[in-house]
Write a structure and sequence with these properties.
Elements (H helix, E strand, L loop, with lengths): L1 H6 L2 E5 L6 H11 L4 E5 L7 H18 L6 H4 L9 H13 L5 E6 L12 H8 L4 E7 L8 H4 L5 E4 H4 L3 H10 L8 H8 L3 H15 L20 H8 L5 H10 L4 E2 L1 H8 L4 H10 L4 E7 L2 E6 L1 H14 L1 H15 L4 H10 L3 H17 L3 H9 L9 H13 L3 H12 L7 H13 L11 E4 L7 E4 L6 H16 L5 H11 L8 H18 L2 H17 L9 H13 L3 H14 L8 H14 L2 H16 L5 H17 L3 H8 L9 H13 L3 H9 L8 H17 L3 H15 L6 H5 L1 H14 L4 H14 L6 H4 L3 H10 L5 H8 L3 H15 L4 H10 L4
Length: about 850
């Protein structure tokens, strides 16, 4: 606040009620080095004369406490507004211009002055006061004074709710000051209140009262926070009662949902100008924020605790209206958000509406890998709706996907025994639900042909012309099961291609897009990075057109992109895509835990301690849930070891991977383990680990990693022929998919070896030259003054000159003409004082350029 007052002529402090604006500014005024004037407004200050009297009186009182040269004109002013208001305003401005030291005028509760504030003395001071007056305006929302000129002109100081809200540490400190002990759970209260100071205070007080209650009253256990924050009366008296009745009524109706758009606001308010009032709430800072577009309109989110208090107030005043509004919201969300629809329907005592929404849209949960939420919604339905046949069949599907076939069969039997209560439409829907999970047709169907597959399991060849949408969905779900079982991906790939193909008009577009997203992840896991990127981009483009790009079902596509970018050594893009995948991914599907693994690897590569600490914390959080099998444990172990290595603790990293032995785990784990063992000096174990990958090198980046490890082991033992053979194999596998990361990770050890390999002879000159060029551009620590004397293009040409490529081949690689390459070569020779390519390279090496 002091910095803002020092650097800005006008500072705005704006936040809803209960954020401590007056308390905060009062403390600041008492500790400020400048003379400060204070004026608190009320509803009567809408009169220009009264407001002028208050402003002049406040400034004179502050100036009188610190007599200074130039105060005389200010102290001589008449506090009464003359008949000609403009003349009085001019007299005050001239008196302020004579001040020799700045003075601060704090005007609190400016929202009470109404729209006339802008045309009265406060508006004049904001627009025309000299720099000697520092004006601080404090209020609950949007002030009528025009501020854009300040924001984009001379500057405006602003402190809003995020700055005034308590942090988690401040909640803990405040609780201690109010008598709480060290067991107090500040984090829970902070999350519940979002740092709203008055709510924090109410929560701490209610917890203290619960602990001091008589023994007959249930007492909150130590180390917890109050689950209920009693703020309804405060919200009613201090917020709603201070508003225009129409706006207060709108808020009580519109807070039926924490999230809403304009259309829902109109439906809840029941009048056409509900959207206008929604904007007024936003403009006046009434506990609401605007968020991204969803489904073609902006979405608005209420402060959840504020909305909860408003719902309690409406339930007390008009419980029948509260229930009706919940039913309105349920109808609005029935086809777009089943979770919200179900919650609103149950609060509105309309469970049938929830059942109808679940029956129509249960497949969306399955496609989005969220069967746990689906089953929980079904279980939470009240009787007799929890025993509805369609609900029982949906629960059977959830149990089947979770691997509990016995429970699935029992639920199916119960559902079929009660189908007599269903109408014809719902009975057909139930049968369709069963059909989705009978994707392998009975004997005699001509569109299914079993062929041998990995591990003796059949791969189904599905005819494009005959299988139905239900069969397509079933194939997709079988592929999902393959992913959950952590198998090699061959069967999953075949199933996804069958489920997600185009051209069949009965196929569901949702299945096609989800299948393509999962197929991208399957390709990324198999090392086909080009196809992974193509399929992921296509799936996301199609999903974006439907507004799905931020939904969980698209997490596999974001993860596929992140994996491809990591192995392509495009680390900045990898960080972005992997963070998106982790945010959207499910705990029980690879997009969640695998994105965390790759985030750790990416952050280790970038050497960003802050991000690495964040991704390591997420890794530990996933691991402690105990949801995953042995393959996850090995991945977790190698990731933790990579973190230790990135932090310079190679011995600690080796100790971490000791339980993994010398291989025999997943291909990715063993390739990373072999290299870690080699760096730690355990050469024999590294060799055995690399050899254990025999027969599992179909993956391009796994094979590249293992081959480079073998090359460096051979080079270290003096086996030059094997070293070059392994390098040639590595570049052969890496070039088609642009797998740069394994080379970048071993940059220092491979630098000389790649030069020697280029001379030794290679069929991949362009790729090796590109590796050398990347190393040169990335080796900032080796740059010298002579290096900087070469232009960027000359450095690129010099890097390619380390290979045996001709000038024409270098020109093709750099997409320039041969004459341009020769011109750059002559410039390099001149700057380095060399007469040939060999001399230029020797000189460049001596000077640390390459």
């Amino acid at each position: 606040m002091s910095a803002s007052a020092d650097s800005h002529r006008l500072t705005l402090v704006a936040a809803p009620a209960g954020y401590g604006k007056s308390t905060f500014l009062g403390d600041w005024v008492r500790n400020c080095d400048l003379p400060c004037a204070w004026l608190s407004l009320d509803r009567f200050d809408t009169e220009p004369a009264r407001l002028f009297h208050g402003v002049v009186g406040a400034i004179q009182r502050a100036a009188g406490t610190m007599p200074m040269p130039g105060n005389d004109a200010l102290m001589a002013l008449d506090q009464s507004l003359a008949h000609d208001g403009a003349a009085s305003y001019d007299l005050l401005l001239r008196a302020l211009e004579e001040l020799t030291e700045p003075i601060v005028l704090v005007i609190d509760d400016v929202h009470l002055a109404g729209p006339g504030l802008a045309t009265g003395i406060v508006g004049v001071l904001a627009a025309s006061a000299p720099p000697s007056l520092r004006l601080v305006l404090s209020g609950r929302g949007h002030t009528s004074i025009q501020l854009e000129r300040f924001r984009y002109g001379e500057g405006l100081g602003e402190l809003r709710a995020p700055e005034l809200a308590f942090t988690q540490e401040e909640v803990a400190q405040f609780a201690f000051l109010l008598g709480q002990d060290a067991a107090f759970d500040a984090g829970s209260l902070w999350r519940m209140t979002a740092g709203w100071p008055v709510a924090v205070h109410a929560g701490i007080v209610s917890l203290a009262q619960a602990r001091n209650a008589p023994i007959t009253t249930p007492v909150t256990a130590p180390g917890t926070t109050a689950t209920h924050v009693p703020l309804a009366d405060y919200v009613a008296e201090e917020i709603l009662d201070q508003l225009e009745p129409s706006l207060a009524e709108f808020i009580l109706r519109a807070t039926t949902c924490d999230w809403l758009g304009r259309r829902l606001a109109v439906e809840l308010y029941g009048r056409p100008h509900g959207g206008v009032l929604l904007e007024e709430c936003l403009r006046n800072g009434l506990f609401i924020e605007e968020h991204d577009y969803r489904g073609g309109e902006s979405m608005y989110r209420w402060h959840s605790l504020f909305a909860a208090q408003c719902r309690r107030i409406l339930e007390r005043r008009d419980p029948l209206l509260a229930e009706r509004l919940h039913r309105v919201a349920a109808r609005y969300y029935q086809d777009s958000d089943v979770v919200e629809c179900t919650a609103q329907a149950l609060q509105g005592r309309a469970p049938r509406q929830a059942v109808m929404s679940l029956g129509a849209h249960w497949l969306d949960f399955v496609l989005g890998n969220d069967t746990q939420s689906l089953e929980r919604l079904c279980r939470d339905l009240p009787a007799p709706w929890s025993e509805d046949p369609e609900v029982l069949m949906i629960r059977s599907v959830c149990r089947m996907l979770s691997g509990d076939s016995a429970a699935a069969a029992e639920l199916t039997e119960r559902a079929l025994s009660r189908t007599y209560v269903l109408d014809a439409l719902r009975r057909r829907r139930l049968e369709a639900c069963r059909a989705h999970f009978e994707p392998t047709p009975s004997v005699g169907r001509q569109d299914v042909h079993a062929t041998p597959a990995d591990g003796g399991r059949p791969i189904r060849d599905i005819s494009e012309d005959s299988h139905s949408a239900a069969c397509s969905t079933g194939l997709f779900l079988l592929a999902e099961a393959e992913f959950r079982l952590h198998r090699t991906g061959d069967l999953a790939e075949a199933l996804l291609q069958a489920a997600g193909g185009t051209g069949n008009p009965v196929r569901l577009e949702a299945i096609e897009i989800c299948a393509q997203a999962d197929l991208a992840l399957a390709f990324a896991g198999a090392g086909d990075l080009v196809r992974a990127s193509e399929d992921a981009t296509s799936a996301l483009d199609r999903a974006d057109a439907l507004g799905w790009s931020s939904q969980e079902r698209m997490a596999p596509a974001w993860l596929a992109r992140g994996i491809a970018c990591y192995w392509n050594d495009n680390l900045a893009a990898a960080q972005k895509y992997l963070a998106r995948a982790q945010r959207l991914g499910s705990e029980l599907f690879p997009a969640g835990p695998l994105s965390v693994i790759y985030r750790v690897l990416t952050d280790c590569a970038i050497d960003d301690p802050g991000r690495l600490a964040e991704s390591s914390s997420a890794l530990a959080s996933f691991h402690t849930r105990g949801l995953y099998n042995v393959s996850w444990n090995a991945l977790h172990t190698i990731a933790v070891a990579k973190v230790a290595e990135a932090q310079g603790d190679l011995e600690g990293a080796l100790a971490i991977v000791q339980p993994l032995g010398a291989g025999g785990h997943g291909a990715l784990v063993d390739s990373l383990l072999a290299e870690l063992l080699r760096r730690g000096g355990e050469i024999d174990a590294a060799q055995r680990c690399a050899e254990s990958l025999t027969g599992r090198r179909g993956n391009s980046y796994v094979d590249t990693c293992a081959s480079l490890t073998e090359a460096l082991v051979a080079h270290g033992t003096g086996d030059t022929a094997t070293a070059h053979e392994r390098i040639e194999h590595a570049v052969h596998r890496a070039e088609p998919e642009s797998v740069f990361r394994p080379f970048a990770e071993r940059r220092e050890e491979l630098a000389d070896l790649l030069v020697q390999h280029a001379v030794w002879g290679t069929a991949h000159e362009s790729f090796i030259a590109a590796l050398m060029a990347r190393d040169t551009q990335g080796g900032a620590q080796l740059r010298t003054q002579s290096y900087w004397s070469l232009t960027e293009r000359e450095r690129e040409v010099l890097a390619y000159m380390r290979s045996i490529m001709t000038a024409a081949e270098i020109a093709d690689a750099l997409y320039i003409s041969v004459n341009t390459v020769k011109t750059h070569e002559r410039s390099i020779y001149r700057k380095l004082g060399a007469g040939s390519r060999r001399d230029a390279l020797k000189t460049a090496a001596k000077r640390g350029i390459v």
